Amino acid sequence: MIAFVRGEVAAVTLNSAVLEVGGVGLELMCTPGTLATLRTGHVATLPTSMVVREDSLTLFGFLDEDEKTCFELVQTASGVGPKLAQSILACLEPDELRVAVASDDTKTLTRVPGIGQKGAQRIILELKDRLGAPVGHARHGRTPTAPAPWKDQVLQALVGLGWSAKDADAAVEAVAPEAGDDPQIALLLRSALRTLSKA
């Protein structure tokens, strides 16, 4: 297993980062929150989890060991694969996930694309005694009851792409009216990028 990767950040995309390690570029699939902390040309160390399939080897990178642990734990729930596990961590910080599971909060879990009411109930049932208690810190200034989680995701993706937090925040607010009741992150992100390119 590859426990962590340390190297210079060669590239950052919307859902992955490439770190150069010993002359080899390793692509790590990451959440927007993790990508927002990376800068091209800077050295970074990311805890990693490798998912092996018959036709692929995929490396997932994380902000810290806590996020990595949650990623691996949620996959022990029925029906949760690596992509859904990453979606959960893109929408919820580890402590938000712990609070939601501990308090039977299916509403918070169903904010994650791909998780319906039954899936949320199953995750709560299967993970309740495994995730542990909240460790008591919010990394991105979010709280478990933060409104409009899409704003955080779009903001972090924009910052990860190199925009300043101030410009990214203004773009997010500009596209907020387009969100509606069922915000589509990819569409809102594209719209925000258009807004920034016009500015």
Descriptive labels:
199 residues, alpha+beta, OB fold (Dihydrolipoamide Acetyltransferase, E2P), DNA polymerase, domain 1, five-stranded mixed barrel, 5 strands, DNA damage, DNA recombination, DNA-binding, ATP binding
Explain this structure to me?
This protein is an alpha+beta fold and 199 residues long. The chain has 3 domains: 4-61, Nucleic acid-binding proteins (OB fold (Dihydrolipoamide Acetyltransferase, E2P)), CATH 2.40.50.140; 65-127, 5' to 3' exonuclease, C-terminal subdomain (DNA polymerase, domain 1), CATH 1.10.150.20; 149-198, Orthogonal Bundle (Helicase, Ruva Protein, domain 3), CATH 1.10.8. Helices cover 43% and strands 19% of the residues. It contains 9 helices and 5 strands; from the N terminus they run E-E-E-H-E-E-H-H-H-H-H-H-H-H. It has helices at 32-35, 65-74, 82-91, 94-102, 106-109, 117-127, 149-160, 165-175, 185-198; strands spanning 4-12, 16-21, 24-29, 43-53, 56-61. A 5-stranded mixed barrel has the order 1-2-3-5-4. A hairpin with a 2-residue loop joins strand 4 and strand 5. Helix 2 (65-74) crosses helix 3, helix 7 crosses helix 8 and helix 7 (149-160) packs across helix 9 (185-198). 33% of the residues are buried.
